[in-house]
Specification:
Its main location: mitochondrion. By secondary structure, this protein is of the alpha/beta class. It is about 60% helix and about 10% strand. Among the domains are: about 60 residues; about 190 residues, Alpha/beta knot (3-Layer(aba) Sandwich), CATH 3.40.1280. The longest helix is centred in the N-terminal third of the chain and has 46 residues.
Length: about 400
């Protein structure tokens, strides 16, 4: 009898209960199960005791609880779907109200939004998703713009390549290169020397040495294209050094064909000391004019990483004369250090060599560092400002007017 009851329970749970849960047959199910169990019991053993009725009632409770669990599982899914739909409707209402709500939200994010404990937490979470979506859109827009610019640059490069393929343009460029190389070759014999001091490698990082070499490459190309180029010397240059490796990366096969002098000797061993002038921004002596008989030395370094006074200390240790560019004399300096890049120094020295005009030469100073040019030195401008202030205050008015009239006569 017990085995029959177990078999009947398995059949009811496997087939009858799901069918009844789908079609809403709750009451009929329990009556049917009870009659089936009673009929089986009566057929097998008609002399059953009243205690077996209590077992039947317990079996009814067990089956009822199992059916409720299975029905709750089938009903929980539509409830969850309805709650997600309600959450999406609230998000749509907030979007129409003008709040920061993302346009696209996934199901997981929606569940996280529903699990937020308070309304303020929900608002913060939606704002976070909104900002994240805006960041993705901006990143995508920037990448698209960058791709468009790259395609435009490729189109322009292809057009320029087509023009370069023209025989006349190729012939003109080859002729100009020959002319530049001829000037550089002449400068190695008759030109004024210009020294680059290559002894600062240990005081710079690899990145700073790379920047220094890039500036020297620009200086060499500018010098080669000038009307009267310098004879460039790389002094204190060591083979297989970091400078050497970076120059090979920049020039490749052209490194061995450069019309410059490269040596591991110091400049004091090649030139007389009385003709050497070390150009440094820390020098107390200001350069007034460009001397064609002197040999100027430029430190091959990035000034941002070097401590103040390193090049000046090196020049003093070697017993050399120093000089600084008269930036304050001709420029109304605003902000920043008075250190210039190597290619800017080369432009300034070449312009001074050709024209001897400080105004034209100092045009290569970055315009972000100064406000404009002055016709007179800054000290004289300060004196005139003091005179104007005394005239306003009425102290020594007549004397100041006479001095002002003498220093600034009417033309």
């Amino acid at each position: 009898m017990q085995s029959a009851n177990m078999l009947l329970r398995k059949i009811v749970r496997s087939s009858v209960l799901p069918f009844a849960a789908q079609h809403g047959m709750k009451k009929d199910l329990f009556l049917l199960s009870r009659t089936l169990s009673l009929s089986v019991c009566l057929k097998q053993d008609k002399s059953y005791e009243p205690s077996e009725k209590l077992d039947l009632d317990e079996w009814k409770k067990v089956m009822k609880s199992g059916m409720q669990e299975e029905v709750s599982e089938t009903i929980s899914e539509p409830k969850e779907l309805s709650s997600l739909a309600a959450a999406r409707e609230t998000l749509e209402m907030w979007r129409l109200a003008g709040r920061a709500v993302p346009e696209n939200i996934s199901e997981e994010q929606l569940k996280t939004f529903m699990e937020c404990p308070s309304k303020s937490a929900k608002k913060k979470y939606l704002k976070y998703l909104h900002l994240k979506e805006l960041h993705k859109k901006n990143h995508k827009r920037k990448m698209d713009e960058k791709r468009e610019r790259r395609l435009e640059a490729q189109d322009q490069a292809s057009k320029t390549d087509e023009t370069k393929n023209n025989s006349f343009v190729c012939m003109l460029s080859s002729v100009m290169d020959k002319a530049y190389n001829w000037r550089a070759a002449q400068s190695m014999i008759f030109g004024q020397p210009l020294v680059f001091d290559m002894s600062y490698e240990k005081e710079m990082s690899v990145r700073e040495v790379t920047n220094t070499v890039s500036q020297i490459v620009l200086s060499e190309s500018c010098n080669r294209r000038s009307v009267d180029p310098f004879h460039i010397h790389f002094c204190n240059f060591k083979d297989d050094s970091l400078y050497h490796r970076e120059f090979i990366k920049q020039y490749r096969e052209a490194w061995g064909r450069l019309l410059i002098t490269v040596t591991d000797q110091c400049y004091t061993e090649i030139f007389p000391k009385d003709k050497l002038i070390y150009l440094t921004a820390d020098s107390p002596k200001v350069m007034k004019t460009f001397d064609h008989d002197k040999i100027y030395i430029v430190g091959s370094m990035v000034d941002k990483s070097i401590k103040t006074g390193v090049s000046l200390a090196r020049a003093k240790r070697l017993g050399l004369e120093t000089a600084a560019l008269p930036l304050e004399k001709y420029l109304l300096w605003s902000t920043g250090a008075k250190n210039l890049t190597l290619d800017q120094m080369m432009h300034i020295l070449l312009t001074l060599k050709d024209t001897a005009d400080w105004k034209k030469a100092l045009e290569f100073v970055p315009k972000r560092k100064y406000c404009g040019f002055v016709n007179k030195p800054v000290k004289e401008l300060k004196k005139t400002l003091d005179q104007i202030n005394t005239l306003k205050l009425g102290k020594g008015r007549e004397e100041e007017q006479k001095q002002f009239a003498k220093s600034y006569p009417k033309k």
